[in-house]
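Page 37, continued from 36.
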């Protein structure tokens, strides 16, 4: 089932999410719905708070980025062909490498894209969809997508990385999004 994606300004996007246990109600259905929602809105990652759940869960499919690279971009990122993965109760253990800029967007903040600096590498501890523990280091574009989704479960948004002047210039657009004054081709829920 395709779930509505909550828009900027919805309080849940600022909540630090909580760990869950294997008996979380309808978890496998929620994960399936999140994949369907992400693909139907052309996303490469989706976090539980974006579908109105305050839990530490996100899904990432960076293979889509590699499948759609322009010819001159091929071979530019070290993590090809990308991953398709579920992350439960993720916690960052280490950030490494240089910070680099990449133009990011967010399904909860439609039609806004900005350059964001993030570390080249992240080491995470997390559980997969079978609640098997993992500790993995990711790099390149995959690390970036993971860090973007990880921020969601920490109550952060990519616009938080922007300089104050840039944020001020975006204020009108952000206000319009939170008021529902935006047209998108996927299902959204706006703040009450």
């Amino acid at each position: 089932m395709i779930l509505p994606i909550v828009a900027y300004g919805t309080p849940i996007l600022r909540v630090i999410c909580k760990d869950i246990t294997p008996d979380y109600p309808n978890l496998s259905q929620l994960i399936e719905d999140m994949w369907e929602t992400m693909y139907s809105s052309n996303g490469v990652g989706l976090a539980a708070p974006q579908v109105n759940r305050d839990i530490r869960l996100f899904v990432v499919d960076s293979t889509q980025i590699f499948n759609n690279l322009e010819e001159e971009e091929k071979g530019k990122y070290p993590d090809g062909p990308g991953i398709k993965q579920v992350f439960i109760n993720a916690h960052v253990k280490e950030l490494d490498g240089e910070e680099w800029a990449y133009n990011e967007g967010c399904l909860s903040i439609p039609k806004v894209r900005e350059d964001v600096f993030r570390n080249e590498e992240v080491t995470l501890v997390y559980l997969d969809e079978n609640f098997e523990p993992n500790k993995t280091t990711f790099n390149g574009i995959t690390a970036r997508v993971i860090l973007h989704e990880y921020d969601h479960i920490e109550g952060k948004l990519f616009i938080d990385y922007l300089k104050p002047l840039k944020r001020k210039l975006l204020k009108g657009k952000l206000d319009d999004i939170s008021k529902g004054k935006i047209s998108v081709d996927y299902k959204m829920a706006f703040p009450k």
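The first helix runs from residue 27 to 40. Flag for discussion at group meeting. The CA atoms of residues 79 and 95 lie 16 Å apart.
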